[in-house]
Please model this.
Amino acid sequence: MEIKFEGGKKVNAVINGRVLKTDQPLNAGGEGSAPTPFELFLASIGTCAGIYVKGFCDQRGINTDNIHIQQQMEWDPVRQIMGKIHIEISVPVDFPEKYESAMVNAANLCTVKRHLKEDLDIKVFATRRS
Model:
């Protein structure tokens, strides 16, 4: 993954030849043309849970067209970070009840969520190029 500066407050990630764009909102000096890095981080949690729900349903032949995932965040003003994230999986009335808890368990296997529960060693350093 390579991080590139596009100008202004735009910082993009190049991942396997694809560009993931970020920007800052107008009130932070950006153009508001793309999600902020933090918004992408939050979206990665919900979309990761979503891919696990999709895989669970696909394995059982359950159509996901009417399954919706809503993610809500609660800010912790004391710690100045997100304190809680709620992921609600809304299923249609004909969704097999016997699969509800197993589907929730599958969503909880999300790789992004599991990484948040571990001590992740992130080292930032600089190098000089000639």
Q: What stands out?
A: The CA atoms of residues 16 and 120 lie 23 Å apart.
